[in-house]
Design goal:
globular; mainly alpha; about 140 residues; two-stranded antiparallel ribbon; 6 helices; 2 strands; Arc Repressor Mutant, subunit A
Length: about 140
Protein backbone atom coordinates (compact mmCIF):
# COMPACT_ATOMS: atom_id res chain seq x y z
CA UNK A 1 0.00 0.00 0.00
CA UNK A 2 1.23 3.48 -0.78
CA UNK A 3 0.86 6.76 1.05
CA UNK A 4 -1.21 8.01 -1.89
CA UNK A 5 -3.67 5.13 -1.44
CA UNK A 6 -3.96 5.85 2.28
CA UNK A 7 -4.51 9.55 1.57
CA UNK A 8 -7.16 8.78 -1.08
CA UNK A 9 -8.90 6.39 1.35
CA UNK A 10 -8.87 9.03 4.10
CA UNK A 11 -10.25 11.74 1.81
CA UNK A 12 -12.89 9.42 0.37
CA UNK A 13 -14.02 8.42 3.85
CA UNK A 14 -14.14 12.04 5.04
CA UNK A 15 -16.41 12.94 2.16
CA UNK A 16 -18.58 9.86 2.73
CA UNK A 17 -18.92 10.58 6.46
CA UNK A 18 -19.90 14.20 5.79
CA UNK A 19 -22.52 13.18 3.24
CA UNK A 20 -23.91 10.44 5.48
CA UNK A 21 -23.99 12.82 8.44
CA UNK A 22 -26.05 15.33 6.48
CA UNK A 23 -28.37 12.56 5.31
CA UNK A 24 -28.86 11.12 8.78
CA UNK A 25 -29.48 14.54 10.33
CA UNK A 26 -32.11 15.22 7.69
CA UNK A 27 -33.79 11.86 8.26
CA UNK A 28 -33.77 12.24 12.02
CA UNK A 29 -35.15 15.77 11.89
CA UNK A 30 -37.97 14.71 9.61
CA UNK A 31 -39.07 12.08 12.12
CA UNK A 32 -38.86 14.41 15.11
CA UNK A 33 -35.87 12.79 16.80
CA UNK A 34 -32.21 13.72 17.20
CA UNK A 35 -29.46 11.83 15.41
CA UNK A 36 -28.46 9.99 18.62
CA UNK A 37 -32.10 9.11 19.25
CA UNK A 38 -32.36 7.86 15.68
CA UNK A 39 -29.40 5.51 16.15
CA UNK A 40 -30.82 4.37 19.48
CA UNK A 41 -34.20 3.55 17.94
CA UNK A 42 -32.57 1.61 15.10
CA UNK A 43 -30.39 -0.46 17.45
CA UNK A 44 -33.30 -1.27 19.75
CA UNK A 45 -35.40 -2.28 16.74
CA UNK A 46 -32.62 -4.56 15.45
CA UNK A 47 -32.27 -6.24 18.84
CA UNK A 48 -35.97 -6.40 19.72
CA UNK A 49 -35.01 -5.75 23.32
CA UNK A 50 -31.63 -4.75 24.70
CA UNK A 51 -30.03 -3.60 27.95
CA UNK A 52 -28.56 -0.13 28.36
CA UNK A 53 -25.07 -1.64 28.63
CA UNK A 54 -25.47 -3.60 25.39
CA UNK A 55 -26.94 -0.54 23.68
CA UNK A 56 -24.01 1.62 24.81
CA UNK A 57 -21.63 -0.96 23.37
CA UNK A 58 -23.51 -1.13 20.06
CA UNK A 59 -23.57 2.65 19.74
CA UNK A 60 -19.98 3.00 20.95
CA UNK A 61 -21.12 5.60 23.50
CA UNK A 62 -20.66 5.81 27.26
CA UNK A 63 -23.45 4.47 29.44
CA UNK A 64 -24.37 7.90 30.88
CA UNK A 65 -24.94 9.36 27.39
CA UNK A 66 -27.09 6.40 26.43
CA UNK A 67 -29.03 6.63 29.71
CA UNK A 68 -29.86 10.30 29.06
CA UNK A 69 -30.95 9.49 25.51
CA UNK A 70 -33.08 6.59 26.76
CA UNK A 71 -34.69 8.80 29.42
CA UNK A 72 -35.80 11.26 26.75
CA UNK A 73 -37.18 8.50 24.54
CA UNK A 74 -39.04 6.93 27.47
CA UNK A 75 -40.54 10.33 28.35
CA UNK A 76 -41.64 10.73 24.72
CA UNK A 77 -43.18 7.22 24.83
CA UNK A 78 -40.94 5.99 22.00
CA UNK A 79 -39.25 3.25 24.01
CA UNK A 80 -40.17 1.43 27.20
CA UNK A 81 -38.22 -0.15 30.00
CA UNK A 82 -39.18 -3.61 31.23
CA UNK A 83 -37.58 -5.85 33.86
CA UNK A 84 -35.35 -8.52 32.34
CA UNK A 85 -37.19 -11.82 32.88
CA UNK A 86 -33.84 -13.61 33.34
CA UNK A 87 -32.59 -11.17 35.99
CA UNK A 88 -35.01 -8.66 37.51
CA UNK A 89 -32.13 -6.41 38.61
CA UNK A 90 -31.71 -5.38 34.96
CA UNK A 91 -34.06 -3.67 32.55
CA UNK A 92 -34.54 -4.23 28.86
CA UNK A 93 -35.41 -1.54 26.38
CA UNK A 94 -37.88 -2.07 23.56
CA UNK A 95 -39.88 0.08 21.17
CA UNK A 96 -43.43 1.18 21.90
CA UNK A 97 -45.99 1.24 19.09
CA UNK A 98 -45.06 4.91 18.55
CA UNK A 99 -41.38 3.91 18.43
CA UNK A 100 -42.10 1.19 15.87
CA UNK A 101 -43.90 3.74 13.67
CA UNK A 102 -40.94 6.13 13.88
CA UNK A 103 -38.54 3.27 13.12
CA UNK A 104 -40.63 2.20 10.12
CA UNK A 105 -40.48 5.77 8.75
CA UNK A 106 -36.70 5.92 9.22
CA UNK A 107 -36.24 2.55 7.56
CA UNK A 108 -38.46 3.43 4.61
CA UNK A 109 -36.58 6.66 3.95
CA UNK A 110 -33.22 4.89 4.26
CA UNK A 111 -34.30 2.06 1.97
CA UNK A 112 -35.48 4.51 -0.68
CA UNK A 113 -32.31 6.59 -0.46
CA UNK A 114 -29.87 3.67 -0.65
CA UNK A 115 -31.85 2.07 -3.48
CA UNK A 116 -31.36 5.30 -5.42
CA UNK A 117 -27.67 5.39 -4.52
CA UNK A 118 -27.14 1.81 -5.71
CA UNK A 119 -29.07 2.54 -8.91
CA UNK A 120 -26.54 5.29 -9.72
CA UNK A 121 -23.66 2.78 -9.54
CA UNK A 122 -23.07 0.67 -12.64
CA UNK A 123 -24.93 -2.65 -12.21
CA UNK A 124 -21.77 -4.74 -12.62
CA UNK A 125 -20.04 -2.83 -9.77
CA UNK A 126 -22.83 -2.88 -7.13
CA UNK A 127 -21.88 -6.18 -5.50
CA UNK A 128 -18.23 -5.12 -5.48
CA UNK A 129 -19.07 -1.83 -3.71
CA UNK A 130 -21.14 -3.58 -1.04
CA UNK A 131 -18.48 -6.27 -0.54
CA UNK A 132 -15.72 -3.65 -0.29
CA UNK A 133 -17.66 -1.71 2.35
CA UNK A 134 -17.86 -4.90 4.40
CA UNK A 135 -14.08 -5.37 4.17
CA UNK A 136 -13.51 -1.74 5.11
CA UNK A 137 -15.84 -1.89 8.12
CA UNK A 138 -14.14 -5.07 9.34
CA UNK A 139 -10.65 -3.58 8.87
CA UNK A 140 -11.65 -0.51 10.88
CA UNK A 141 -13.26 -2.47 13.75
CA UNK A 142 -11.49 -1.67 16.97
CA UNK A 143 -8.99 0.68 15.36
CA UNK A 144 -8.51 4.01 17.07
CA UNK A 145 -6.68 7.18 16.09
Amino acid sequence: MTNIQAKNLREGLRLLVRRLGMLERGEAICCGVTLTQCHTIVEIAKAGSISVNELAEQLNLDKSTVSRTVDGLVNDEIIMRQPDPADRRYVLLSLTPKGRRIHAGLEERSENYYTEVLASIPAEKRDQVVESLGYLAEAMRGKSH
